[in-house]
Amino acid sequence: MGDxxxxxxxxxxxxxxxxxxxxxxxxxxxxxxxxxxxEASPIRHIATTREDCAGFAADAYxxxxxxxxxxxxxxxxxxxxxxxxxxxxxxxxxxxxLTGSPGLSERTRTPYLHHMVRDFSTQREVFxxxxxxxxxxxxxxxxxxxxxxxxxxxxxxxRPIYLEIPRDMVHTPLTGAVKxxxxxxxxxxPAALEEAVxxxxxxxxxxxxxxxxxxxxxxxxxxxxxxxxxxERMNIPIASTxxxxxxxxxxxxxxxxxxxxxxxxxxxxxxxxxxxxLLILGSILSDVEDLDARSPLLSEGRTIHATADRVAIKHHRxxxxxxxxFVHALVQAPLPAFPLRKPPALxxxxxxQPHPDSPVTLEGLFRHLDTVLTDKTLVIADVGESLFxxxxxxxxxxxxxxxxxxxxxxxxxxxxxxxxxxxxxGLRPIVLVGDGAFQMTGTELASCVRYGQAPIxxxxxxxxxxxxxxxxxxxxNDVHEWQYENIFALVGGGIGSRVNTQREFVERLxxxxxxxxxxxxxxxxxxxxxxxxxxxxxARRLGKKLSTDKP
Length: 551
Description:
This protein is an alpha/beta fold and 551 residues long. It has three domains: 7-166, Thiamin diphosphate (ThDP)-binding fold, Pyr/PP domains (Rossmann fold, 3-Layer(aba) Sandwich); 190-332, 3-Layer(aba) Sandwich (Rossmann fold); 362-549, Thiamin diphosphate (ThDP)-binding fold, Pyr/PP domains (Rossmann fold, 3-Layer(aba) Sandwich), CATH 3.40.50. Helix content is 36%, strand content 16%. It is built from 22 helices and 19 strands. The strands form three sheets. It has a seven-stranded mixed β-sheet, covered by helices on one side. Strands 2-1-3-4-6-5 form a six-stranded parallel β-sheet, with helices on both faces. Strands 15-14-16-17-19-18 form a six-stranded parallel β-sheet, with helices on both faces.
């Protein structure tokens, strides 16, 4: 950064130093000066068709790269990203939302400016509820300190931050000498860390059937290798939450499967619930992936639960310990090793191989898909059958499964494929998306074509919202059918195909894998009554919860 650094260039310089090489977004008059700076910076702007798609793309980029960024205009652009930023906040994804706003000078001349809602601070106040730091950089004396405070919060909690620059401040020079990036973060309290590790060691020393449950934060902090070393040294079984799926290789001999309150297989849930000590790392406990409330593990205080927010051992909470420090300390500590526990047996009966010319089914589709995944594929699952059927896929490598499994916002997957493709060009995205979700954000295939990205879209076309149908049938769950395979004629590239039979699915998928240059979309026609085992489990459990809502 040169001697004439401005507020805007200082922000971009910090983003680049933190590993951001691409920024997703759509321009607008209040943010054009920022886009001008982006074009002159080492960071490449990736245009999207919608602001919420830019947010989802930045989220996926962050989940793989470690940090992502989106740049949109004031209110009409920024407020369009609310759902995507809310998803990133809920699921611990470090996304920087960079936005402009009316200039300070014009605010004094004209009290009402276009795009404004209520008053000039409305947009920032909205995002204060779904970020770990929201700042307006309107003072060259304090701008560097404020932006660094926000970046420190992003790195500490791995959640989004909001940076707003009034448009007449973007090119305002910083005062005084230009400072290097200063991310101040207090280290863990050494005494508290030692005490916490000692309590873990004591709990494990008296355990006979310990287990581990891991979630997405392990990946957000880049601790996958540490996790593998810890599991292998202790020789204890490990399950992942749905949001944390693929944190560890799913062909690992100690991996027992996805543990999820609403979609998990009964045998996996029972196996984990039968443990006498459960080490929970980086897991967001929710109704989607919750520990059974009836489990004696909770009532008897036999859990160790560590997240970016706090470390809790039994009923003892440690607020002054950083999550990554706790994991590193466990890896280095002399923790006991245990005899191998036999993993739970799969209770789902294996069915016959589908006939090649029979109508394609979810079972046949996912059975075949499971055989073609490699360590060079990235599975991105949207919400619905796309996610719940994919829970039983066996991902071959670390952290190669992305989904909004906790926040469960439809429309994540297609724009996520764009972001993921830039974050790691060595991975081929396999996008599992329902017809309802595709109609929300499928236009982002145009951006994939524009930038030469080649995701494979497996569109599960059952003409409706399958999750809602399973809970309560009604015409409100129907989706108007598009000729999805023709979308590439509209956006100017790619290959679309219509799939009716198992043979057609196998052949079209193979052709898509063979073509590395273009995106492919497989419009897979499914029966509206077809259900995956995961969907059946979810609907049964959710239906029980909702039974009290019936008149």
